[in-house]
Specification:
The protein has 202 residues and is α/β, with parallel strands linked by helices. It has a single domain, classed as SGNH hydrolase (Rossmann fold, 3-Layer(aba) Sandwich), CATH 3.40.50.1110. It is built from eight helices and seven strands; from the N terminus they run βαββααβααβαβααβ. Helix 1 packs across helix 7 and helix 2 runs parallel beside helix 5. The longest helix has 21 residues.
Length: 202
């Protein structure tokens, strides 16, 4: 990456981030270094960084975002959050729809990305809350229900989701390549990155 050039992206979040982050590393020719049990993946190699932990809910993601400036300032933010909040709501009354929505909005505002894409969870209630924030802000979405589930929360094929993200990265790549002063290296870098601020139960 060119010195001083804005980071193209980072992976941040939960078990879905672990899976998709690993798939995107593999697509870039990098072997993911999963922790035992595949519950977290912390890896930075080339222009792609993954920092994801299974089980994170929106308050934990907010806390982590405030600790990682590189995550907050990525070019493309792919955000998946909400399912764990609804799982936690059965035992923690602070997880109300209003509080979850506030957290989603805060996560969005904390990200200084040029473009944000929300991953809509399988859980119908969580999906509606996330979709409503995306609609309100005019953001793009990727709906997990388009992909075959392995269980109530997780997709069966993470590579398929990573492939669906590729056109978004290519669009960013083309826009940067057309920008004044862009060079081949910077354009290539933008195709290799995405930020995933994610939350779905592992």
């Amino acid at each position: 990456m060119a010195r001083g050039h804005r980071p193209q992206g980072r992976h941040r979040g939960d078990s879905i981030a672990v899976g998709i982050g690993g798939a995107m590393l593999q697509q870039s020719g990098i072997t993911p270094d999963f922790a035992p049990g595949r519950k977290f993946l912390t890896q930075s190699q080339g222009s792609l960084a993954v920092n994801a932990v299974g089980g994170h809910s929106s308050p934990q993601i907010l806390d982590q975002l405030n600790k990682h400036a590189g995550v907050k300032n990525a070019e493309l933010a792919i955000i998946s959050v909400g399912t764990n909040d609804f799982v936690n709501s059965t035992v923690n009354k602070s997880y109300t729809p209003e509080r979850i929505t506030q957290n989603l909005q805060r996560i969005r505002s904390e990200l200084n990305a040029k473009e944000r894409v929300w991953v809509l969870p399988y859980d119908p209630k969580a999906r509606e809350l996330v979709a409503s924030v995306a609609r309100e802000r005019g953001d793009k979405t990727v709906d997990l229900t388009q992909f075959q589930p392995a269980d109530r929360y997780h997709p069966r094929n993470y590579a398929a989701i990573a492939n669906s993200i590729s056109p978004l990265l290519n669009q960013l790549n083309q826009a940067q390549a057309a920008a004044p002063g862009a060079d081949q290296q910077q354009a290539w870098v933008s195709t290799q990155n995405a930020l995933l601020a994610r939350d779905t139960q592992f």
